[in-house]
Structure formats: C-alpha cells, structure tokens
Specification:
Layout lengths: L1 H19 L26 E3 L13 H10 L4 E3 L5 E3 L2 E6 L5 E6 L13 H12 L11 E7 L2 E6 L28 E6 L2 E6 L13 E6 L3 H9 L47 H10 L2 H7 L14
Length: about 300
C-alpha cells in the first residue's frame, strides 16, 4: 500500500512540475491570403437616340436627338453661362447706324465634317431654313431678309434689335439629302440602330475630346428611355422638370443642374374678378413664396426670381 501511495505522489509531483514548466510555443497559423475580387467593369458611356425621328437640328422635333446636335453642329454664336453671345462660326459682326442691318463674316479655316469649307451661302441657307421651322421661327419675327454676298451674311431687320447675336446660336448645316453635315467635334456614323458619334479630325477648335467614340442606343418610346437609364445602358439623360410631359427617374444617380431660359411666372386675370385691382395683385405678389415653390415643387432645381430676368 505504501508503494502504491508513493507512486501516486510521485506522479502528482511530476504533473505539478510539468504544469509549472514553460508552455510549448503554439504552431504558427498561416495568414490566409485575401482573395482579390475582380472589380466590376465600368459601364460603357453611351447616349440615347431615336433613329426613326431623324437628326436634323433645325427641322427636327425630337428633344433627345436635338440634344445631340451640340456635338455635331455649331452656330454663328454660342451662349455662355450668363446667356451672353460669344463668337463661334462668326469671325466678326457689325451693325449699321440705324440698327436695321447686321453683317456677319464667317470664321476662316472652318470645315464641315466632309472637309468642305464653311461659306456664307451655307450660313444664309441655314438661317433662312430656321425662319420657317417651328423650333426657331419666333426668333425671326423682326427679320425681313437674310442674304449672302461678298463673303458675308447680311440680316435685315424691320426694327432695331441690339440683341440679335444672342438669337443666332442656331446650328449651321450643309444639306446632303439625309442627315446634314456640321462643323462640330463629332460626326454621326453607322446605319440603322448601329449608330455612334465619332470624333472627327480637322475640327477647327482643336480641343482634346473626352472620348473618340460615343455609342448611341436606339430608343423607340419614353418607357425604353427610362429602362435604358435605370439599367445603365445609357449614361446620361436630360429632363425638364417644368415640362408637362417630364420623364420620371428613380434610383441612385447624380443630378446636375444647368441654366436655361425657361421661366415660370404667375399670371393674373386683370379683366375680371378681384385681380382687376392693382392693390390685390400687389398683395398677392408680396405673399407669394417663390422659394417655397422652388423647394417643394421643383426639389430645389429652380431659382426663385422676383423679376423676369436671369
């Protein structure tokens, strides 16, 4: 019995000593190598178009196609952010002493996308076409004649208009019987529904372009446009919140405001009812909260103004 007890004590002592000794170092656990997930491919930058609606920038009526015109065509003047006219295809302008005749000299060295030079005759033809188009005819209410002679374009007015250059940002085209040619940085390429805007060589401004090719996605109706934007098949759409048929878009996207000449105004019936009184009209105008309308109705995408000026 004594031998058994001694053996147990010896075993316990050995266990105690082992527990007090240095613990064995753990085996190093290898660090897992993080797997690299492939980054999602960036969506191709593409724009929408309505091929069946035509692309004429003067006689056309499709707003989506007309918006593409700024990449294909240029005017005698271009409006800056303050709606001030800056010379584009016009090298110089002069007006007669009575203000009834304007003369415009085309910029030299400008060519259409087929390489042919810009001439005064094409400018006059484009402006005369605009006089008869629903899109631009209102601008020419005071114009009696537009003619090209001696390398310049002459516009004759029935009454003086010092702001005429601001009305002449109308696209200048060269007719071909199909899609007219322009002097802008891009040219329409392809056929049918396989269309794209291709950067053209020889653009007179010589500025670097962000893309050599901009694919165009064929759209048939408004629902197609909304779906193409929601699925990122197209990268950019323009919508007018003041329009009666403005399209609605949902989801996550970046919104960028840009100035336009569109103005909404409050009108009074001065022929009948309480608004015949000037005092009533003044009271209503003072109580009308333009800032609240801009915020609530247009989600801050409008600027309140007390006067009909920019």
């Amino acid at each position: 019995m004594r031998n058994i007890l001694a053996a147990l004590l010896t075993a316990a002592l050995c266990l105690g000593l082992a527990a007090c000794g240095p613990a064995p170092e753990p085996e190093p656990t290898p660090t897992p190598t993080p797997s690299v997930s492939p980054s999602p491919e960036a969506a191709e930058f593409a724009l929408a178009c309505y091929p069946e609606a035509g692309f004429h920038p003067i006689t056309g009526s499709n707003r989506t196609n007309l918006a593409l015109g700024g990449l294909l065509y240029e005017g005698l003047f271009a409006l800056d952010g303050q709606f001030q006219p800056q010379e584009a295809l016009c090298a110089s302008a002069s007006v007669s002493a009575d203000g009834l005749q304007w003369s415009f000299i085309p910029r030299s060295g400008v060519t259409f996308s087929d390489g042919s030079p810009l001439t005064a005759a094409e400018i006059a033809a484009s402006l005369n076409l605009a006089r008869t188009s629903p899109l631009y005819s209102a601008r020419f209410a005071g114009v009696t004649d537009i003619a090209a002679a001696n390398g310049m374009v002459t516009v004759t007015l029935s009454r003086a208009n010092g702001a005429l250059p601001a009305l002449l940002d109308i696209p200048i085209v060269k007719e071909t019987g199909g899609v007219p040619l322009g002097t802008g940085p891009y040219v329409l390429a392809g056929t049918g529904e396989n269309l794209a805007l291709e950067a053209r060589s020889g653009w007179w401004q010589g500025k670097a372009l962000p893309r050599d090719t901009i694919p165009l996605r064929a759209i048939q109706e408004a629902d197609d446009l909304i779906h193409a934007f929601d699925t990122r098949d197209i990268a950019l759409v323009s919508t007018d919140l003041t329009g009666t048929n403005a399209l609605g878009f949902s989801g996550s996207f970046a919104a960028v405001d840009y100035p336009t000449s569109t103005m909404l105004y409050v009108g009074f019936n001065t022929a009948d009812g309480p608004c015949r009184s000037a005092q009533v009209r003044q009271a209503l105008l003072r109580g009308f909260d333009r800032a609240a309308v801009s915020t609530a109705q247009f989600s801050r995408h409008a600027q309140p103004a007390a006067l009909p000026v920019s």
